[in-house]
Amino acid sequence: MRTVRLASPELGDEEQAAIARVLRSGMLVQGREVEAFERAVAERCGRAFGVAVSSGTAALELALRVLGIEGGEVLMPDVSWPSPAHAACLVGATPALLDVHPGEWNAGALDFARGRSASTRAAVVIDQFGVPSRHREIAAALPGIPIIEDAACAIGSTLDGRPCGSFGLVSCLSLHPRKVITTGEGGLCLTDDPRLADALRILRNHGQVTAGVFERPGPNLRLTEMQAAMGLVQLGRLDAIVERRRAVATAYRAALPDQAPGLATQALPEGATRNEQTFGVVLPPPFGAADRDALIAAMKARGVEAGRLSYAMHTLPSLHAARTEAAYPHADALVARGLALPLHTRMDDEDVAQVLQALADAWGAMLDSGPVSS
Asked: What residue ranges define each of the domains in the chain, with the CATH number in brackets?
């Protein structure tokens, strides 16, 4: 039995040729390839400036630093890989965690408005799994608060015809292998403010303004030329990559009501499109985390990799000092009962059918036997 992988980046001869070209040039760090990649991503996302960095987490940390966030609280959704909260902690701020919408899996305008306090210094708005947040509503609910768009998963998605990556004072992308396009590791900060762009460039490079002139202490968060060359190739295929991912996701959505009834999927706001970075399903109550884990194991036995969907950051030991609300019912339910199905461009129709059959068989058996935990 062949195994359908949860994720598999699309890499080929073009990426290898681009990396070989850089190696022959002898220029390996932050040269013309990086500059070209920054311009291309900024143009694609409708931004004036792009600043490439070593990871999506680095992008979030630098964005907070150039906005002058050195304390206070930073609002953000509770459901996420912990990068946004860790970035806030690294600049001396406290993450203020918000529950999420049960359908869209993003925090909404009301959540941000309720979470705001006298200590709020900034907000990180996440486009969860490539589904755009309701950016205009959130911005209207937070007058005077600088907003960072965490579009780590969302290149190729849009809201009201506007590309993700174009919202907020600064937006941040990730280029990790699980993302729609990848450079192995890497990220970008995008902005329309030339002063913020200059500050980001200085800070990512040891705080160096010009050769030998260091304005402030800064880390080394530069992107390599090899990564940028690879990213340019990937960006050139973005539309085709998104098209294939949407085809797989469409097949899932069409089949799930009949083959795996009762499983919920992520809703899409009106006027939005998604790049299908992750396809998640959520078990209904009274099924719980143990049932989700058993379903993942049963699918693995049938040759299909699935994985847990995300994290509720209020439960993580690294974030014990975060400001949390009294309860996170939607976040807890989503994280405990959610799993991600395989979705990548290397999947063919046979792979899609295998995933759906494995899910149908495993879920059907679970419905027959009932929940093992609640």
From this structure: 13-236 (3.40.640.10), 238-369 (3.90.1150.10)
